[in-house]
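To the structural biology subgroup,

Please find below the input and predicted structure for P-type Na(+) transporter, which we are adding to the shared reference set this quarter. The sequence is reproduced verbatim from the submission form. If anyone notices a discrepancy with their own records, reply to this email rather than editing the shared folder directly, so we keep one authoritative version.
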Amino acid sequence: MLNLKNPIHFTSIEDAELQLQTSIQSGLSSQTAHERISEYGENRLQSDKGVSAWKILLRQVLNAMCVVLILAAALSFGTTDWIEGGVISAIIFLNVVVGFVQEYKAEKTMDSLRSLASPMANVLRDGSMETIESHKLAVGDIATLKTGDVVPADIRLVETINFETDEALLTGESLPVVKNAHASFNMNEDVPVGDRINLAYSSSVVTKGRATGICYATGMNTEIGGIATSLRQSHPIFSQKPDPNEENYKKKLRKYRFRVFLYYVKRILGLNVGTPLQRKLTVLAYVLFIIAVVLAIVVMAAHTFHVTNEVSIYAISLGISIIPESLIAVLSITMALGQKNMSARRVIVRKLEALEALGGVTDICSDKTGTITQGKMIARRVWIPSYGYLVIETSSPFDPTTGTVSTIHQPLETITDAENPKVEEMHELRVFDDLDPVLKISSLCNLSSINKNSEGDWVAKGEPTEIALHVFSSRFNYGKEELLKNHKLLREYPFDSEIKRMAVVYQGKENNPEVYVKGAVERVLERCESIATQPLDSEKRQIVLAQMDTLASQGLRVLALARKYIQNSVEIETLSREDVESNLDFVSLVGIYDPPRVESKQAVNLCHRAGIRVHMLTGDHPETAKAIAKEVGIIPSYIKDNDPNMSWMVMTGPQFDALSDHEIDNMKALCLVIARCAPQTKVKMIHSLHRRKAFVAMTGDGVNDSPSLKQADVGIAMGLNGSDVAKDASDIVLTDDNFSSIVNAIEEGRRIFDNITKFVLHLLISNVGEVILLVVGLAFRDIHHLSVFPMSPVEILWCNMITSSFPSMGLGMEKAQPDIMERLPHDNKVGVFTKSLIFDMIAYGFFIGVMSLMTWVVIMYAFGTGNLGYDCNSYYHDGCKDVFRARSSVFSVVTFCILIMACEVKNFDNSFFNLNGIPWKEWSFGDCFRKLTENRFLIWAIILAFASVFPTIYIPVINTDVFKHRPIGWEWGVVAVAVILFFIFAEFWKLIRRTLTKPHGKGRIRRTLSRTLTSETKLSESQLEKRLFKQSRNLSS
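Predicted structure (tokenized):
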């Protein structure tokens, strides 16, 4: 790092600028910044570990599926079955390598996607402001900070305006620290880290105000880097070590060591790592492993525990038949692809748990501004009490030179008399006396900037509401840059979401200091004492509120502007915010129009069809919120303003907060719109929804939204206008701040959940069929009374690894079903293993087992000699001819049935010939063929798996010595009959499912079967309407 003569907090701003070889006015050049990053490294902590190849390899080797195969290989080698042991070892190697490569690529993809949501830094480079990823920050960069930012590096402050940071992570201080760029310290002083108020530290959070500073330390050279090891997240169990001075210390220490031991055992077994679904599947793997051991014991018991090589081989066959070896690998690949698809739909997944959870969301609590609406605001109407209205018509939110301005002359005294006020266009924009303070407040009580870019287009930076006010004042040449020539900022009180106001104090060249205030109408009005030089009595207050309601009912967001003078003799620094914002003179109301996004109405309608309730939580006026909610369909169109239901559909934050939990729980339904919503209201809303068994997604962008984002089941942060704190607390980040992207994320979450269900079913069906086949196969004894397996271990592994795995990967890539957003959300507590899936698994698996057994019996006993020979589990000889031919046939039947199921499970209900479920009169062969072949990976996996059967049967040595079967001829006829019968059964089972899910079906038995055998997740229009808008506390009603 650059060497400083003295510690940075002792160094003046000028010396810091000189020693760090930078310019406060223009910042570093891009070339210098890149050179410094190359020399000193990126702004990262070493504890920010990347992807570990060793850990991924270890996970692949130690997962339950692989452990079973390792045991099977060891047992094969132990019984001197070298070929079988070698094949199993090769499959283990293949499984580990494929799984490692895929998971490593997936982890790298996830890592790169997560970096898109990493904290950003606003820096001055080459004389212009840029937003860069914080790890690209260089020593000497000039950085700007605002409320909600995470400080990206250690910074020497050069300018501060009401600037405070939360340094609890570094110093343990619970209260924010007030910073002062111009603070100086004596070189002889010992100044602790927490008292260096002219510095801002990396990873601290800006809680108030804004600042500019010079970056003097990055990465491991920061204060937080010095203690990075203590910041590495560890499991809470390690913080529970008992103190030696505690009572019963030895007993508590033994318990602590046992808990740590269990933690590491679970970690090695994969029971406490990964997402909830991955943990469930790991548990499933170990349950299946236990079942495999039990089945192996059954094999031994069937042979009176006289364990020979033959018995051991059969036990191995039965044990590996129940394990879906590729399940974990296929799941990891599917999740990684899902995360990649999410990013293409403008959603960055920060936590994989959210990917699983999104499909189960029942309620979305969304902000309005910039999410449901465009966030490109226009000051549409301005009401000045002593004059009347200004009406602005324009289509450009940033260009102050376009559009028209009209006036409606209607002073406060005549406001109740005029019925049809005259509208006059201002052909020449002029600033009259009553308009002057409106323009000054709009421009100076404002942090935005507007200007022309190099292409000559108007661009703006800042919060949309402030941009609208700034553009309005710039129409009259009252832009901020122009006014700052004659006005000096003395004090700034940033917008506070609790009091919903912002205030600034400016000193003009001739006048006394003047306070300018803007904010929510009620919050500004409560601080006012006068209006238009007259006392603000209750009558005039009601007139102001009536004007606010008028503007709000037009869908305008209404702000109030106010001001007052301060005597020159008063010390501004000594005044509290309470004093500064008291005894104000009411100046104006500004109605700002934020048009809904074009896609919002369709997205809300899609949510309703999917059984998802949409709640709008906004800081706007109730009338504004209600107008926008009706426009986009959050409030149904048939609900009129005088409808009694409107009383619970639209509430204010204070009204909702005033209700007890008991009162909220007894409400007919939770409100659809909360206006004037505070951060704590959002948290209360989430708790209320959770008590109604809802699964909630919550949006947020500010620092104060982080509690609600953490409390929500899925926290959604805004990528464009969201604070770093909100992003850090969230599960997913929207890169375009668009409500429709939330709906896209839910649709993608449902698609992923659907596909996981498909490939889990597909993998487990073959296992069930193989277990049935081999358990019943214990009855087939050779002349030595040893069981002869209908399928060899290598055949079983081939079916599970080659035949099933790659089609299952293809199923993980399936497109969303056409009706995916016309079903109710799935239950995340139940997860993948629903009653429907279990019954499907048993039904299809049972019939595969039956068809396989039928094939074995027909070939062995109907057309064969019924002679099972001897040692046919070990090697081929003439006495095993029928057995080996029957095995080839059974192997073919199982393989082809599995491949048929790869197509059948593309849709659990619809026919193989009509997977989209279109009316049969509209059906065409072309549509059917396109649907079957649209997933290229799946179709090629099926074709190659089908083709792989024939080399295994007909290539010499491989067939008899490895697979324990031999070439067949006429037996293909038996195979064809068995496969056709299985296909007919699959179609018949789907017909039963379709019949049960018909909405007009009645009867208790039908309903019971429907709930058991199918998901039954669609509702009629009336049922859906009741769920969305008329539901009682019991959501199942």
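Summary notes: The mean pLDDT is 83. The domain at 378-414+423-593 is CATH 3.40.1110.10 (Calcium-transporting ATPase, cytoplasmic domain N).

Regards,
Lab coordination
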